[in-house]
Amino acid sequence: MLFAKEYKVSDPSSEVIFHAYPQSPVAEKVRVVFGIKGLAWRSVDIPRLPPKPMLTALTGGYRRTPVMQIGADIYCDSQCIIRELERRFASPSLMPTSEQGLMWCLSRWTDGALFDQTVRHILGAAGDGLDKEFAADRGRLYLGEDWAAALKQANADLPHLVSQLRAPLSWLNTQLSDGRAFLLGEQPAAIDAQFYHVVWFLRGRWADGPSFLAQFKELERWEANVQSIGHGTSREMDPQDAIARAKGLEPNAQTGVAAHDPQGLAVGQSVTVRPDVNGGEQPVAGTLRYADAETVVIERSAEDVGTVCVHFPRAGYRIDVTDTAA
């Protein structure tokens, strides 16, 4: 099932470089978007667990997966990545209907509460069979400082957690019951990728996932349709080459702050950016270059990567001003 012509890169500064690992469900969400748009892209494998020195050299410390790089512009979080892909490669659109605003609002639930619930479910179901190092890292990231106790509780609460996932999957099954190929109709949209990564995660990482999903016949039909889209065309890239690409180019991010900024941000301020949860993660520090309601961009320089612009979403991220502009 092909929905777009393959995008040919003629300028290395516009080449999409994707930093991820194969088992990442959030990376799978973006790979589906690559497929919808028929993109050619470069794949940089990163470790599943910290340290991730090649990645954090580019991001300034952000360690989550995935990260997209285009030249010396670095895009963190799938929100930011998908928005930028839609801006650069407008056809076919990820928003094929007029409900773009509602789709973005719904994505805050699919990527937030629904995904966090699915992680808790899968970690809890694994129980003592979970790799200890992986459990400690992801437990701290998603379950908080008292992650070990939360993991035991998730295991005890597994029937309840299954029931909480059964309801939204039933809703999706109903949405698809008129025979439509995708959630909004005959064309795939961003919201298909945003729900698919949860289903993909359940099927691949929970032992009972296939039997659980089998009760949702329309959902399984849709799942096969999304899978058939593919991931576009990828070629491997060495992480050192990705760093050299960034160092050899200048970032293209725009400069400015949109009116009515609630935090009174200004270009040139020293700021830090981090996820708006207590996951024990390192904030990324730099100089504010751009901010609007959806995005914040900070500029940072280091000897190994040169000057880069790191892009984050505003939704779900905290910006702290560490000093004022000169």
From TrEMBL:
Superkingdom, taxonomy of origin: Bacteria
GO molecular function terms noted in the UniProt entry: glutathione transferase activity
CDD domains linked to this entry: GST_N_family (cd00570)
InterPro entries according to UniProt: Glutathione-S-Trfase_C_sf (IPR036282), Glutathione_S-Trfase_N (IPR004045), Thioredoxin-like_sf (IPR036249)
Name of the protein in question: Putative glutathione s-transferase protein
EC number(s) given by UniProt: 2.5.1.18
Class of the enzyme per the UniProt entry, highest EC level: transferase
Pfam family, one: GST_N_3
Keywords carried by this UniProt record: Transferase
SUPFAM superfamilies: GST C-terminal domain-like, Thioredoxin-like
Limits of the GST N-terminal domain: 14-93
